[in-house]
Amino acid sequence: MxxxxxxxSVEELCALIPFSTQAIRMYVHRHELCEGVHFFRVGRRxxxxxxxxxxxxxxxxxxxxxxxxxxxxxxxxxxxxV
Length: 82
Fold this sequence. Notes:
Order of helices and strands: EHHEEH
Mean pLDDT: 84
Distance between the termini: 62 Å
Helix content: 25-40%
Radius of gyration: 15 Å
Strand content: 5-15%
Largest sheet: 3 strands, antiparallel
């Protein structure tokens, strides 16, 4: 079997895994598929990283990339005293 490209649209992803486009969008909405890890936004389009989706399906935690920008959840708000 030919290796899929590293990045896929929702429709391309659905052709490779047994989920509908509606199911994929539900997982995104529920934050089970995380932006910056499993998918990225290019304009309004969602682009999925195939290797991260495979890890998610297989129940493996994604490997953190030391060069990646911090995710919003990693940023802790600091209260400033005025």
